[in-house]
Amino acid sequence: LISSATKSLRMETEILEKKLQDAQMKLAEKDGDKEKEIQSLKRLISELEFQLTMEKNNNESFLDKLRKEMKHKSDELEKLTQEKTQLIHSLSQVQEENSLLQETVRRECEERCGLTAALSRAREQVLELRRLSGTFP
């Protein structure tokens, strides 16, 4: 009876040891799989961090370009605004000068008309005097 019980216990012990070994092997496999997954995730994180860094650098570079372009456009706008102001001032001066010249031409035309009328009267008077002097020696 003892021998049979011992044999039975040994067999049960062997079965349990085999189950334990199988469980340990499965656990070791799972640990290996988890370690591989952890390494894979670490690589993925490193790649994503690198991509994020690259994107940040690209964005900063793009922003710098935009800032420079905006500064250039702002300077250009300021220059054009100054040119516009200067052209408006020049136009105002030219319009003033044009008005002055038109007024001068108008006065000179009036004066010319007056002189032409006076010359015509003087001619008439000279003709009249010649006619009169022709009758009186």
From TrEMBL:
Organism (species): Neopipo cinnamomea
PANTHER family: LEUCINE, GLUTAMATE AND LYSINE RICH 1, LEUCINE-, GLUTAMATE- AND LYSINE-RICH PROTEIN 1
Signal peptide location: none
Superkingdom classification of source: Eukaryota
InterPro entries reported in the protein's UniProt record: LEKR1
Sorted UniProt keywords: Coiled coil
Keyword Transport: no
This protein's record includes keyword Coiled coil: yes
Protein name, per record: LEKR1 protein
Coiled coil (UniProt feature): 6-111
